[in-house]
């Protein structure tokens, strides 16, 4: 999706990202997002012309692994898993046996009721009474209504992952980023943790923008791993 003016449409920081996607044709899609180590928190502003909806897609089209997705309109959540592991993509032959047991589970919870839900498999929309699917290319979506008398709708989405189960992902969500948690409450500890790491660094002497970009890219990647090997409640993976 093209940006009219990228510099004016985006705000980027270590703990916060926002973008106005400028849909055109009267459509509005503005999003903000933040994250913690195993949490993604998103906020959308949409209008009727943008057909307010959110879609989740489990396996990617790289290795076509098996995935699963389910919609629960009562709990306003979508759950599922993806069995595609990045190491498997890079070294598919040497670790195939070990990677075959991998599952990355997720629980995505919304603060607005679902008006329409659907599940797709192999790019095909399944019958309306089907609320779950398993296969190599599966996805689920939820649509929302803009309240009468209002010009836009705000939708808050919180996503938590687990290496144990979908139920554990939901427990992690309830414990770490429960209902009512604001985007700022998610961003604040992330901002504090990044500041603590970056405040240790002082760069002296002349450095080009390319040098600084390379250096901070290396710093960023060095802090990505090792990832956590336990769940929110302390259960080991």
Return the CATH architecture of the largest domain. Answer: Distorted Sandwich
User: pLDDT average, as an integer?
Assistant: 84
The shape, in one word, is globular
- The CATH topology annotation of the largest domain reads as Beta-galactosidase, Chain A, domain 5
Oligomer: single chain
Domain Glycosyl hydrolase family 92 N-terminal: 8-161
Pfam family, one: Glyco_hydro_92
GO molecular function: carbohydrate binding; peptide-N4-(N-acetyl-beta-glucosaminyl)asparagine amidase activity
GO cellular component, one term: nucleus
Produce the secondary structure layout.
Elements: H1 6-9, E1 10-13, E2 16-20, E3 29-36, E4 39-46, E5 53-57, E6 67-72, E7 77-82, H2 86-90, H3 96-99, E8 104-110, E9 116-121, E10 124-125, E11 132-135, E12 138-143, E13 153-162, H4 166-176, H5 183-198, H6 209-222
Antiparallel strand pairs: 1-2, 2-3, 3-4, 4-13, 5-12, 6-7, 6-11, 7-8, 8-13, 9-10, 9-12
């Amino acid at each position: 999706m093209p940006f009219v003016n990228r510099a004016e449409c985006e705000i980027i920081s270590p703990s916060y990202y926002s973008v106005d996607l400028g849909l055109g044709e009267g459509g509005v899609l503005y999003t903000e997002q933040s994250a913690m180590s195993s949490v993604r928190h998103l906020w959308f502003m949409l209008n009727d012309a943008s057909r307010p909806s959110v879609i989740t897609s489990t396996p990617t089209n790289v290795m076509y692994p098996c995935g699963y997705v389910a919609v629960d309109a009562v709990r306003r959540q979508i759950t599922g898993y993806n069995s595609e592991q990045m190491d498997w993509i890079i070294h598919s032959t040497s670790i195939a046996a070990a990677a075959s047991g991998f599952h990355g589970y997720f629980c995505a919870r919304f603060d607005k009721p679902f008006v329409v839900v659907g599940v797709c498999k192999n790019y095909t929309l399944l019958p309306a009474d089907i609320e779950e699917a398993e296969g190599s290319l599966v996805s689920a979506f939820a649509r929302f209504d803009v309240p009468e008398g209002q010009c836009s709708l705000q939708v808050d989405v919180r996503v938590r992952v687990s290496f144990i189960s979908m139920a554990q992902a939901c427990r992690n969500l309830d414990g770490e980023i429960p209902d009512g948690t604001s985007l700022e409450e998610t961003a604040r500890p992330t901002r504090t943790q990044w500041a603590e790491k970056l405040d240790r660094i002082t760069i002296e002497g002349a450095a080009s923008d390319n040098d600084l970009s390379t250096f901070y890219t290396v710093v960023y990647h060095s802090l990505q791993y090792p990832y956590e090997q336990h769940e929110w409640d302390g259960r080991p993976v």
